Amino acid sequence: MKDLFSQIITQIGEDPTRPGLVDTPARAAAAFEYLTSGYKRTIEEVVNNALFPSDSTDMIIVKDIELYSMCEHHLLPFVGRAHVGYIPQGMVLGLSKVARIVDMYARRLQIQEQLTHQIAETIQTVTGAAGVAVIIEAKHLCMMMRGVEKQNSSMKTSAMYGAFRTSAATRTEFLSLIKS
User: Fold this and answer.
1) What end-to-end distance do the CA atoms of the chain give, in Å?
2) Can you give the pLDDT at residue 18?
3) Minimal CB count within 10 Å: which of 10, 32, 76, 148?
4) Cα diameter, the chain
């Protein structure tokens, strides 16, 4: 990957051997590997058996989980936060695992719509929840730095599964709780 970044630097008209750029290909390769490290993780590693029996059937919400991802269309970052809710049905997931699931999928080349559903589907599968809701709000540098260059634009996506899709009251409770 280092050699490829060196080629990119050359292709844009720069000299990869000049003092300020000499180590850039290696740094860029390391950064890109980190930014896409979600491909090297599995859900089994992330959850790490942190599922616990519970009689609770009340909504669980983890909100304001910051996320950093890369747009698969332009290889530019998008940055935002995820709000995740689920209604347990016999099992609860360790709190940090919700954020780790968000990170695992965010650290891949993505579109926000897909990311939202991947998180929801995974939490549904792992927990067997009666319902899962995920909302992501993000700012996309591909829209801010290039193209239409709209600095204050943001995108919101949602995925509602189970009770969050079938019950307006459940969905409304989730939406009101993430706003508070």
Assistant:
1) 44
2) 97
3) 148
4) 63
The residue written with tokens 């609770």 in the block is 56
Tens of pLDDT, residue by residue over 71-110, are 999 999 999 999 999 999 999 999 999 999 999 999 999 9
Q: Which candidate, 138, 102, 137, 103, places its Cα nearest to that of 121?
A: 102
* Residue ranges, CATH 3.30.1130.10, the chain: 49-179
Q: How many whole angstroms separate alpha carbon 58 and alpha carbon 56? A: 6
- Are 120 and 153 contacting, i.e. CB atoms less than 8 angstroms apart? no
Beta-strand relationship, 131-140 and 77-87: antiparallel
Cα dihedral sign, 6-147-118-94: positive
pLDDT band at 168 (very low <50, low <70, confident <90, very high): very high
Distance CA 163, CA 151 (A): 36
Partners of residue 84 on adjacent β-strands? 62, 134
Q: Are 24 and 32 in contact (CB under 8 A)?
A: no
Tokens of 64: 């304001």
- CATH number for the region 49-179 comes to 3.30.1130.10
**Residues carrying an active site annotation:** 71-74, 112, 140, 142
